[in-house]
Amino acid sequence: MDEELGEEANLPLLPYRFRYAGFALIILGFGAAYLYFWGGRPAFFEVPVFAIVTSYVETRWFVVAQTNSLDEISFLFFLFGLLFIGFSRDKNENHITNLIRIKILFYSVYLTTLVWGLAYLTVFGWPIIVVSAFIFATFLIVYIILLRLSLVMYYKNLMYQ
What we know:
Layout: H1 2-5, H2 18-38, E1 46-55, E2 59-68, H3 70-86, H4 95-122, H5 127-159
Antiparallel strand pairs: 1-2
Helix pairs in contact: 2-3, 3-5, 4-5
């Protein structure tokens, strides 16, 4: 069937090895989070950064601000780690696994949209920005979990046929 669909059957997935990089990034993210919350925030990570908006003592726009970048590093490591795990190929990809991926992607979008809608109805003010960032990460987690469960069921059914 892949031949019938041609190039359209190939999803733009990352190579399989990116999955390992994703796990490594998540471990590094835990390390950065540990340093940020319990490690005394080493001064090495105090850097000037360009900020569109910064709001600590006062709100400032388009400035270079001094900040400890560990929390941003931690979140980005988690985010890209999840992305690499969720969107890297399996060892044995075929048109069925591609269809499973697409179906799970839709379910993840539906669920994330529902959660985001509930968040906007129950969280007010600036905290919605923080909640939104976590909801996007949750989308990737839901996608990964549903995808893995679906692929396990598919391979299990394939073995017993």
